């Protein structure tokens, strides 16, 4: 019997504060619709220096282990996907291992390739388990990032931060991955980068969107070729992409998911055998179907609209949003997932939603995590953004959560909140 492998459970962590996106727009003298309708944003997470990639990753991972009663002794791999590392040598994963007191007999490392790093870690874990090398053990994959562009910049309303922790095992209650059907596409491009020593990223926005859609086309066509060969999808009355119940995309901003979905549909419309004659303009217009977007994509974007860009965690925040909203309805159905990382690498893969997805998500209770956040004024957001990264404020973390307390002799020291 073929071994099933995939995501058993997940948990999220977000900064304790957020700013309302309409309020930010008004403060910048911009029509709020430019941010709400133009970007699809509602709120934007505001991370302070104490909420770095380590603290967010450790909080999400601890929440996952606690909520789902995971025995740390049964973990054999820990991978953190991040592009917001805190050291050029010591990985975020090493910090997380120590903070959570995880076993020593583990494979522990970071995966970096812009926003693709989390998927790189997930696929390493899936294939490690599927190969039999795991010996019955599970893997912990954490995607943790802070998207920062700076005050009064073009990218300001697309900032955010947070982490998603994934438990990967042979009990894929959330999502059983179609192992071996992955489609990949990578290119050497300069669409987005963060030079050593910079807190803020540098991005060529319009070019980056083109790189995203080009890489998506290559990865999706690669997946579709394999999926057709295995009869997971077929050419017929409906396009192959339409045979997926839902499709999740990397979400640097919510409107990008619409652009991505249009591009995916265009790939099918351009490649369909025996299709009636059509002009490129007519195909593009059909690709923009609101009905398809509403059915296949829209329900995954609620959390993304309320948190903002989370780089490596963006795709998996969309997965959390989808399963939180539709876990029960999607049980047994196949979904597609598109990961993109600037620079660039893209991967399209698919999986079947587990019968216990709704139960797992109810236990995860992402709404409770979101409800604990504090809305702050634009003035307070600006104050936090101006704080030096090496001097975190002396705030106490909530019970079970982690926070950077100080940097002493080049060592980063963290504290965990305890019940009073």
UniProtKB/TrEMBL annotation:
GO MF terms held by the record: hydroxymethylglutaryl-CoA synthase activity
Region span, Disordered: 271-291
Pfam families associated with the record: HMG_CoA_synt_C, HMG_CoA_synt_N
Key words, A-Z: Acyltransferase, Transferase
InterPro entries tied to this protein: HMG_CoA_synt_C_dom, HMG_CoA_synth_N, Thiolase-like
Enzyme Commission number(s) from the entry: 2.3.3.10
Domain of life: Bacteria
Residue ranges of domain Hydroxymethylglutaryl-coenzyme A synthase C-terminal in the record: 176-275, 289-387
Gene3D superfamilies: 3.40.47.10
Keyword Acyltransferase among record annotations: yes
Gene Ontology biological process: acetyl-CoA metabolic process
Domain annotation Hydroxymethylglutaryl-coenzyme A synthase N-terminal: ranges: 3-169
EC supergroup of this enzyme: transferase
PANTHER family: 3-HYDROXY-3-METHYLGLUTARYL COENZYME A SYNTHASE, HYDROXYMETHYLGLUTARYL-COA SYNTHASE
Family affiliation: Belongs to the thiolase-like superfamily. HMG-CoA synthase family.
Protein name: Hydroxymethylglutaryl-CoA synthase
Gene: mvaS
